[in-house]
Amino acid sequence: MDEIKCILRNMQEEMRQQKADMLDMKEDIKNTIVSNMSEKYNSLEEGEELLPLDNEAKVIPSPVDYVDTWKAMEKLVDLGLTKSIGLSNFNKKQIDRVMEVARIKPASLQIEVHPYLNQVKLIDYARFLGITVTAYAPLGSPDRPWAEPDEPRLLEDPLLKTIGKKHNKSPAQILIRYAIDRGLIVIPKSVTKSRIIQNFNVFDFQLTAEDMKTIGSLECNRRLCTLGE
Ligand SMILES: NC(=O)c1ccc[n+]([C@@H]2O[C@H](COP(=O)([O-])OP(=O)(O)OC[C@H]3O[C@@H](n4cnc5c(N)ncnc54)[C@H](OP(=O)(O)O)[C@@H]3O)[C@@H](O)[C@H]2O)c1
């Protein structure tokens, strides 16, 4: 099956780069995810390019149905090559298509979640199915290359700053704690040692019910990670 070969090739390359064996591998590689970058597409065209674009700078979709990819990923679990498998950027309809054929239930659904895009309905649906939710871009992904210079920055939001001051915490810590208190797995990214330490330091305070409600009120359906057309 070409899909299995393709996934295996990616895993082997990752192991080669990390000079690691299966046990040492990064969690997100050990736990394979199938990612759909747009609601319209199956996934992106396979190959070296992370973001394959055509002559008109539009993303090139994969000809492979993600349902077939899912079946191939189940085989990887059978072979002991990955521990768990999950989905990323799938909407309800796409999750349903996978669930219809799945022998193995997706362990997690990784989606963009932060106070500007709370994803209440999709999170409720995943929970109803017994799928955990992993929140990516929880800090508003300020370093994403396509960020507009004048767009509202989550980490600069005055409301979060005020709540942060009250608890003697940074807006980033408030955002991480907010996600945890919503029962989400949260994956803030940082390459800065002091921030990585700061981002772990979120278990010595508690957001009040009022704080949670206030932060939730920032919802404005603002999706940051989209490939557009
Ligand atoms: N499945 C998907 O389609 C998908 C899409 C997007 C992202 N993701 C994953 O989700 C994870 C996080 O997403 P992300 O990196 O886009 O967004 P993010 O975690 O919301 O934001 C990361 C940015 O926040 C900064 N930052 C981190 N901690 C901070 C702190 N305490 N104070 C101030 N700034 C802080 C980082 O700066 P420094 O690094 O310079 O410290 C970096 O610029 C990544 O692992 C990414 O791979 C998945």
From TrEMBL:
One of its GO terms (molecular function) is oxidoreductase activity. Residues 63-218 form the NADP-dependent oxidoreductase domain. Residues 1-28 form a coiled coil. Keywords: Coiled coil. The keyword Lipid biosynthesis does not apply. Gene3D superfamilies: NADP-dependent oxidoreductase domain. InterPro entries: AKR (IPR020471), Aldo/ket_reductase_CS (IPR018170), NAD(P)_OxRdtase_dom_sf (IPR036812), NADP_OxRdtase_dom (IPR023210). This is NADP-dependent oxidoreductase domain-containing protein. The lineage of its organism: Eukaryota, Metazoa, Ecdysozoa, Arthropoda, Hexapoda.
